[in-house]
Amino acid sequence: MLQDESDFIYYIIKLNGMCDIMEGNPRDPYIEKHVSIYSVKAEKCLAFSLDSQNNMFFFMDQDFIVTHLKRNGSNRGLSLVGELTLKEI
Hints:
The protein is mainly β and 89 residues long. The protein is built from no helices and eight strands.
């Protein structure tokens, strides 16, 4: 679980072979109000990181592929910037 500078929380849930990045609003603590902001087809999450100053997210799956995500300007969702392997990094 991660927390940004605005106290929003981010965490990963796995459902039906997909890992969803969830966002929770600190002003509305009810779990049913948390929303999925991005889904990645992956069996496991090995690492999850947040660069809140640049609105960047990083997700590493079981194959060591790092998915680089950026916050959309129009909504709270995330969009794909690119995918890298550890060798490329």
